[in-house]
Design brief:
Rossmann fold; globular; 2 domains; N-(1-d-carboxylethyl)-l-norvaline Dehydrogenase, domain 2; alpha/beta; 390 residues; binds nicotinamide-adenine-dinucleotide
């Protein structure tokens, strides 16, 4: 970002504080029922976190429903039956007990019908179809939260997943993002997360309560788009970091790529939504998630393999081979971001984002990540005057 743009940056907001832990029963007229829509790696860990809290907190029903996209395992058994018999998602989170109060349900409608708190946590490409199936099937007083990283690009522009949920289902939707590699939280290693909310801080407080444990510290900020865009865009930067690792370019180069990536994340987010706050980038959902994803996430890992193979094997092939059914989000997000950039004429301003996509589709070699990202973007064009066209 140019010095001119830095000078125009908004005054720093107050740092987010952990929200009060005593959400009272007076405010909650009835016990809330929670359903987790999704049961992959992170979905299963989310169910585990939530299930430990619904048992502990009087304002929630003990049982946590978890919708499972049904699969038949190599043993011939249904995944749902196995989860319900041994309390473990043997495919996506093997070796971890979810809590006896987690009930797996392969029937989406049945799983959500009694819930008044819905936690969405599936790969983002499935969400539009899931929302269509849920129209008219959920209760009137439902609150939602999305743990999903990604966006949908439509003719009229990019649509964040929380907006897709809100628009299609007519419900309020918060987001939860952070430096959260699921397998580490599953074994209760300390980490942090950020809830992004729109207006209602009491709802945010309730989500914070539902997710917080001594090893999972959740804070809330009033910036849904900022939190969600951080979580979404860092997967594109993680691909760039993976290319650098695959090319064995070293730590300085990787740090430079991360810095350039963070700058593009911030500029892109603020161009799309002028409400996005600078301080959000310093929360767990921002720089912390960027660091952990560029050091240890699956996008980095597969991008490293892509570069080691000289960019000759496709991401689809590597994903199927390396991730055992888990999904990469970075490649589709890079394409979606590229579509936004080209549609709006912003490609020159975001050389790292643009180059990542062009590498993914074999238009450029992995080594282009450094050659192209180091071009000085015309960030002076990204001052306040550009934002009004978004
Ligand atoms: N895993 C992590 O460490 C992590 C951390 C933070 C956020 N996230 C985000 O959480 C979201 C979910 O990721 P995950 O790790 O739980 O999933 P995953 O990649 O581990 O698993 C894929 C899931 O998709 C399901 N699926 C496959 N085909 C489907 C279909 N046609 N319709 C619906 N579902 C289908 C599978 O059954 C499985 O549950 C993603 O947006 C991801 O970016 C993941």
């Amino acid at each position: 970002m140019s010095p001119a743009m830095e000078a125009k940056a908004q005054p720093q907001e107050e740092a987010a504080a952990p929200l009060n832990d005593d959400f009272s029963n007076d405010t909650v007229a009835h016990k809330s029922r929670v359903t987790v829509v999704g049961s992959g790696n992170w979905g299963s860990v989310a169910a585990k976190l939530i299930a430990s809290n619904t048992l502990r907190l009087g304002s929630f029903h003990d049982e946590v429903r978890m919708w499972v996209y049904e699969e038949t395992l190599s043993s011939g058994e249904k995944l749902t039956d196995v989860i319900n018999s041994i309390n473990e998602n043997v495919k996506y989170l093997p070796g971890i007990k979810l809590g006896k109060n987690v009930v797996a349900d392969p029937d989406l409608e049945n799983a959500v019908k009694d819930a008044n708190m819905l936690v969405f946590v599936t790969p983002h490409q499935f969400m539009e179809g899931i929302c269509k199936k849920l129209v008219g099937k959920i209760k009137g007083d439902v609150e939602a939260i999305s743990l999903i990283k990604g966006m949908e690009v439509k003719m009229e522009g990019p649509c964040m997943i929380s907006s897709l949920i809100s628009q299609q289902l007519g419900i309020n939707c918060c987001v939860l993002m952070g430096a959260n590699i699921a397998n580490e939280i599953a074994v209760e290693k300390f980490s942090e997360a950020t809830v992004g909310y729109r207006e209602n801080s009491q709802i945010a407080e309730k989500w914070v309560q539902l997710f917080s444990t001594p090893y999972f510290l959740v804070t809330a900020v009033q910036d849904v788009e900022g939190v969600e865009l951080c979580g979404t865009l860092k997967n594109v930067v993680a691909l760039a970091a993976g290319f650098v690792d695959g090319l064995e370019m070293g730590n300085n180069t990787k740090a430079a790529i991360m810095r350039i990536g963070l700058r593009e994340m911030k500029a892109f987010s603020k161009l799309l939504f002028s409400s996005v706050k600078d301080t959000t980038f310093f929360e767990s959902c921002g720089v912390a998630d960027l660091i952990t994803t560029c050091l240890g996430g699956r996008n980095r890992k597969v991008a490293e393999a892509f570069a080691k193979n000289g960019g000759k094997r496709s991401f689809d092939e590597l994903e199927a081979e390396m991730l055992q059914g888990q999904k990469l989000q970075g490649v589709s997000t890079a394409r979606e971001v590229y579509e936004v950039l080209s549609y709006r004429g912003w490609l020159d301003w975001f050389p790292l984002f643009a180059t990542v996509h062009e590498i993914c589709i074999f238009h450029l070699p992995p080594s282009a990540i450094v050659e192209h990202s180091e071009r000085t973007p015309r960030f002076s064009l990204l001052d306040g005057s550009a934002a009004q066209y978004c």
